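Journal club prep, notes for RB
We'll compare a predicted complex against what the paper describes. Inputs for the NAP case:
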Amino acid sequence: MTNTTESAVLRSVPTGLFIDGRWRDASGGATFPVNDPATGEVLVRVADATVADGTAALDAGVAAQSDWAATPPRERGELLRAAYELITSRTDELALLMTLEMGKPLAESRAEVAYGAEFFRWFSEEAVRVSGRWSTAPNGATRLLTMKQPVGPTLMITPWNFPLAMGTRKIGPAIAAGCTMVMKPASATLLPLLALADLLRECGLPDGVLNVITTSSTGAVIEPLIRDPRLRKLTFTGSTEVGRTLMEQASQQILRVSMELGGNAPFLVFGDADLDRAVDGAMLAKMRNMGEACTAANRFYVHESVAKEFSRRLAERMGALRLGRGTEDGVDVGPLVDEKSRDKVSALVDDAVSRGAEVLVGGRVLDGVGWFYRPTVLSGVPADARLVREEVFGPVAPVITFTGDEEAVRLANDTEYGLVAYLFTSDLSRALRVTEALEFGMVGVNQGIVSNPAAPFGGVKASGVGREGGCEGIEEYLETKYVGIAL
Ligand code: NAP
């Protein structure tokens, strides 16, 4: 049951479609439920967009594009800065919404609000730094002018695991660059982005610049938009499987795409690592968001000389975590997002155990209401266990030993994914050598978290195309136009 504060916060969120600066019902009047994963209770019902609503959202974005592109960068930047301040002042409400629909503890939700808001602050500063180039052609005859212009109307699709930050990481640079948007948040966790759209309206975002649609017929509503020749860009964060399908659809009109997809992060602990630091890093890399993160450490490769001690300490820390509804005080670990996710985690652990892995702590679901899985450490995990290949997306740490640096790198790279890797060593040369050999878009050296609005976030191989954040992030929303000038 929700209490009075929770009910008040839920009532304050608009639950319609945000199209052309106004909240409205879906054209058929249909709605679908948003549930609390800790209790299964329906929190609210939100508008269920049809194909016609999707098209109306794109119509609004297309109509607003040229005025928005012509709006002075300083105005766009100041709007983002005002929104940053407003998000920050509403941290508690936004965090509560996130915890209610997603399950993570309030402290983690507050951290996500701060992280998500930072993208607006960062890109408020980037908005006025977009520039081109002027040069002389090598033969001296002509001049080369290079200018940057907004890509144009952009379709954004976000996942459920970071309901606010995955949105601000796209909306921030698009506003800064002068692109209009149609945003489709994940159906399981959409309230923070609905609240954000209203907050941007309050800050004076012009009508049609951001349009938000929610739908339970995702594929049917999205595909016509991707195939619409007025759309100029698709930016997607989610699973590799869905990303692949969307890239196929986007290929029909050679749509520009950014893809932030799945991960299978290795976490390397060398024999000379500071073990206290490595265990702290492991807790962060594994347990941020209950393991439901694309950056979550999925495979722990530990040098044989320290594997036993590392596993013991990690199991002790994991075993001490308190499970519960994210809104309760003192809770470290909330439920997983839904039954299917919990069952997948359970099946992956059972598979590893059936192939000979040993359970040091956890290893089973928590009985009772809600989709809880106990924080788990497994040792002696064989290379053919499914959880070595697949994203676990839950609080499970499989430990595998290695004997030499080359073997560690080979094991780490032996995956179709390439988002992030972590390594712990006291030897700077080893850290640099191994970093250069790792086929990943990001590497954390002696730290268990890499996400930072000022850094380019993104992967290689099946983990995606493009970068979000840093000075690279705004480039995803800009086209380069070259002008040859004869003198
Ligand atoms: P998902 O199932 O791929 O869904 C992501 C989004 O795609 C949701 O909004 C979903 O809508 C939508 N979608 C699903 N099928 C679609 C279709 N046929 N056409 C258009 N849109 C479609 O991923 P998820 O389970 O939400 O998120 C977890 C995944 O995201 C993990 O693999 C994780 O690694 C990845 N992730 C990557 C990053 C990164 O930056 N690299 C960050 C966070 C998460 P519905 O909700 O309506 O189904």
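Talking point for the session: Residues 106-126 form the longest helix (21 residues).
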